[in-house]
Amino acid sequence: MILEEALSEKVIGALIEVHRESGPGLLESAYEQCVCHELTLRGLRFGRQVPVPMLYKGLRLECGFRADIIVEDRILIELKACNELHSIHEAQVLTYLKLSGIRVGLLVNFNVDRLVNGIKRMVN
User: Fold this and answer.
1) Residue numbers of the domain that contains 98
2) What predicted TM-score, i.e. pTM, was given to this entire model?
3) Which band of pLDDT confidence, cut at 50, 70 and 90, is reported for residue 71?
4) What are the C-alpha distances in Å from 66 to residues 5, 10, 25, 57, 90?
5) What pairs with residue 51 in β-bridges?
6) How far does Cα 79 stand from its chain's mean position?
7) What is the mean pLDDT of residues 63-78?
8) Distance (Å, rounded) from C-alpha 97 to C-alpha 113?
9) CB 107 within 8 A of CB 90
10) Domain total for the chain?
11) What is the DSSP annotation of 43-74?
């Protein structure tokens, strides 16, 4: 099993490679496909458009929440292609982390010149 920090580095490397090859300006769905391909090339196990159920007073609700990508059941990735990230995007990731029980999330905005400026690591 890959340690969490090493896994984060591998995932961020894959995200940077996608941005290096594709640049800004594509739709989220295109980036999602590219990221999944890059994760496959790196031998990482992942789920795409993973349902995130909500528990309310003991009742499991399928509210339509979906995490873009979950890697190795330990890192949740939420992809964006927008002018800038807002607090609502961060709240979305934190909510998905809480609901899924996953500790680490990456909020990624591909619509930047350098991807390091578009990645926000979040911890539940």
Assistant:
1) 4-123
2) 0.92
3) very high
4) 24, 23, 23, 21, 15
5) 66
6) 5
7) 95
8) 27
9) yes
10) 1
11) T--EEEEEE--EEETTEEE----EEEEEETTT
